[in-house]
Amino acid sequence: MNTQFQVGIVQNIWLWLLLAFLLGLLVEWLLEVFFFRRNALRRVQDYDQKLVSLQAAERDKDALSAKLDAAARANADLNARLQKAEGDYGAQLDASKQANVKLNAELDALNQEKNGLLEKIAAFTAGAGAATLSIKTLEEDKGALSAQLETANQANVDLSAKLDAANQMNADLSARLQKLEGDYDVRFNAAEQTRAQLELEKAECSALAEKLRVELEQAQAELAARASVVASEKELGQTLALADSTLKAEAETPSTPASITEHKRRARQTIAPAAPRDPEDETPYETACPQHLSDVHGIGSVFEQRLYGAGIGTFWQLYKMPFDQLRQILNLTGLQKESVDLKVIRADALRLAKETASKGRLWNGTLPDDLEPLEGIGPVYEKRLYDAGICTYAALAQTTPEQLEAICGAGGVRKPNFKAWIKQAQKLAAHKK
Fold this sequence. Notes:
By secondary structure, the chain is mainly α. Among the domains are: about 100 residues; about 150 residues, no CATH class. It has twelve helices and two strands; from the N terminus they run H-H-H-E-H-H-H-H-H-E-H-H-H-H. Strands 1-2 form a two-stranded parallel sheet. Helix 2 crosses helix 11. The chain is flat and about 170 Å long. It starts with a helix and ends with a helix. About 10% of the residues have low confidence.
């Protein structure tokens, strides 16, 4: 038992020793691993530092290489400049040698000239006495010339002052001349503007005078027409009285058909214009001639022709036209719809109908002829002829000068040539056929 126990203890001891040995090996291995890792980390850090240093060295190397290249280029440049300087120096040295040779030759010549001058000085010294007297005389002349020079300088100063004054005067005159030129341009432009304005006013005055002359002639023609109407009324009274007496005489004596026809012809020739209508009379009556609708405010020649084409030829018809129908006849565009006032057109048509005593006047649609191109017929006479029912070349060609004078008047300063009107109308009527 004791032996087995001892053997067990020895075995346990050996196991513990083996375990302790293994633990020692493990500890040693762990220590080696720890120290190896720490050394490895240090080596890695050292390697990183060396790598950084190596990179810095590489950069320094690149910088040094660049500097070295720049130094090499600078050295090459310096060598080229040195070679050029050596060449220039050699050329300058050769030139200096040549100049030195030339200077030596000149020095020899100067020495020879010096010797000649010394000989001349010796000869001059011999005549120094006479020269001294000449110098004194020259000094006296110099004093006189100095006085004259001072006088001349003073005169020069005076002349300079006068020249400055003259220059100043010239500058003043130039300034005044420029100012006068500017004033002249301004006044010339103003005169041109005034002349243009006067010419414009002259033209306006001429136009106004012509307009006044035409209005005067029209007024005189109107006055003559009224006088003719009065005379016609008197003549009508006399004619009626004569007709009454003639009828009484014919009633007492038998009459023949020829005498009756002659009386009818005379009666037609002595018919006077009808009595003027009441401006407020709206009784409808028909005429063969239209009125000048372009006299209405807002109606031009284009609108006038459109109204004539629609059968509207009098102020009264235009006034009585409904707005929708009038708008359709005038064929107003977008802008015209805003600018053309139909109420104003109708109101002005009513005004003209009252002024011309043509309320109730209707147009039968007979197309009129333009009488204004005839020589001597203007818008005033054309309106009077239209109002008298003469609005075609054919109707005018069938009238007599007496009838035209009764319609248009005898005129003022210049009497219208009614015969020429009739001849022109006959030609135009024949050409129209």
